[in-house]
Specification:
alpha/beta; globular; VOC family protein; Glyas_Fos-R_dOase_dom; metal-binding
Length: about 140
């Protein structure tokens, strides 16, 4: 029986830029940053309060997973914001929104009360988009 998910991948256009975005803007912690052979890097980050879930910032490059054509197609999908998506939560959406906005995070939707909760939407530096919601008490 499966007991948990411990790694998930977010495809990024540039791992150095993604490192800066996820660590310096979102405040995530680096779990692993290791060379994996020529031109390969295993880079994982996690929200500080959820160290058991590692987010692998996967470069989209030709190699093990993609041939040249597939890599280009995937880069196009990510850049256009049509591939990656996730949901993060915080304790105070307004405060977190203001903090991240001041750090240069691009929001596509300001905090809004919806029938399903209180959320804002933002994009990472590659084009992946995320919902940021306030944790319900």
């Amino acid at each position: 029986m499966i007991t948990k998910l411990n790694h998930v991948s977010v495809f990024v256009l540039n791992q150095d830029s993604a490192y800066d975005f996820y660590v310096n803007k979102l405040g995530f912690t680096v779990n692993t940053d290791a060379a994996m052979g020529p031109g390969m890097r295993w880079l994982t980050v996690c929200p500080p309060e959820q160290p058991e879930l590692e987010i692998s910032l996967m470069a989209i490059s030709e190699g093990m997973m993609f041939d040249a054509q597939s890599a280009q197609q995937m880069r196009n999908l990510v850049q256009r914001g049509t591939f990656g998506f996730g949901v993060f939560e915080c304790n105070d959406l307004i405060a977190t929104y203001e903090e991240l906005k001041a750090k240069g995070v691009e929001f596509t939707k300001a905090p809004t009360k919806e029938f399903y909760g209180f959320e804002a939407l933002f994009k990472d530096d590659s084009g992946n988009w995320f919902s940021l919601g306030e944790k319900k008490s």
